[in-house]
Amino acid sequence: MKILFKSFFVVLVIAIGFGSISCDQFENLFLNLPIKKEITASGNGPNIFETEAFCLSDYDSYNDNIDDVEAIKYVAAAYFTITSTAGLQGTGIIATLYKGDGVTPLFTITLPTAIASDYINNPLKIELTNTEIALVNEYLADYQNNDCFVAELYVANVSGTSGPPYSITGQFELVVELKLKF
Amino acid sequence: MLRHTITICFILLLGLKTIHAQAGVSLTALPPDEANEFAKPMATFLGSYFNSGGYYSADVPNDFRFKFSILGMYILIPESQQSFTPNPGVEGYNDLSETATITGNKGNVYLGPQGYISYPHGFDVASLPSAIYQAAGSYYGTELLLRFFPTINVSDVETGFWGLGLKHNINQWFTDLPVDIAVQLMYNNFNFEYVGNNPKNYVKSDSKNFAVNTHASKTFEEMFIVYGGLQYESSSMDMDYYFRDPNELYPQIADQVLSTSIDGDNNFRFTAGGAIKFSVIVFNVDLNVTSQFTVVGGLSLQL
Description:
The complex is a heterodimer.
Chain A: H1 2-25, E1 28-43, E2 48-55, H2 60-65, E3 69-84, E4 92-99, E5 105-110, E6 124-125, H3 130-141, E7 148-156, E8 166-181
Antiparallel strand pairs in A: 1-8, 2-7, 3-6, 3-8, 4-5, 4-7
Chain B: H1 2-13, H2 16-21, H3 32-50, E1 65-76, E2 83-84, E3 99-100, E4 109-112, E5 115-118, E6 127-139, E7 142-154, E8 157-169, E9 180-194, E10 203-220, E11 224-243, E12 256-263, E13 268-278, E14 281-289, E15 294-302
Antiparallel strand pairs in B: 1-6, 1-15, 2-3, 4-5, 6-7, 7-8, 8-9, 9-10, 10-11, 11-12, 11-13, 13-14, 14-15
């Protein structure tokens, strides 16, 4: 009988250990963090531009998990126009993402057409080259020091059916993935 | 220490701490209908978990008996429960490809007129080992099953569970049945609630799991038991959670506590298994064909 009870408790310990396996099953968690930054550029031309700074720490999802972040990587980016001066166009609409210093570009995209209204309710998915993605990821790798960015919206040789002044409000979107330890 | 270990394990097992940690872009990133689809496998898992292990024999003696059991389970999450087709209900986001459920892998991002909508990643689990304990007492061919864990507070989450089962052996009403036959009802309730200081992390869940079964068993040489049963079961999970709207697509319902009720995919279960008795110790293993195929191994001390 004593042996049976001993066996019972041995298996009990094993059973608890078995349950503990499930605790180790989730080694990492991944969160998508959508970053949305509105930028309004206005002026009389010929070129109008504006920059907006933003940081990952502006977002609850990042701040809530900051102690558990192991890595951050780029997922996707997009641009769309929210509103603009009637008929606003130029020789180029350019979106640039800089490092937090506002000087060092991570990537620059010239939109396929330079007509602002082409991107209203019709976002442009920003397709980065592997080199550009690697540059963004390299910057994000040191997220403790590099959690800020500067986005710029630039319209060259702006014109419109009304104005000057001219104005364009666009939204820059960036999605990054946080790898969290469990 | 033992209690602490079981508690921690249990909470981690169910991913509750994880849900809490993911507050930003997990359940709390989704409006109720989408949160429902995302979390459905978890409701099903809880059903598979709590509705398992109710018996290893249909024999319930008339004299008083007591048993204490430890059950280990291995629950397989089928491929079909790893993803779902999102329907965010926002104009311009139609015909989207599949994204992960809570047990799936990659959460997708979709570009529409108002920018990106980002769905949460799952935990990427195809199977989940788990364990539970239970006690039962029987008298006059009727057995009362109890499962209980007191509500405790761990990592800003308050959680606990309880379960009841009632089983009756019908052989006493019919003579000369070739096997033991019993009917059983089970109800298990599991709840957790975030009780920390950040209202944006608020999540509360109440999981209700019901099962009714009939099962039969045959004992050979007073040592070997073969058993099987058919069970109808259901699971539901009422959930309240703070909706943050990180995608900024639902301003009308953002930044408030929303509710949803998630029905698991648990319906019918067929169980087949065997047990071996060594004096007061019983080992049993059974296979359960249900929405999430489950293997149960049990060790019981039967007095």
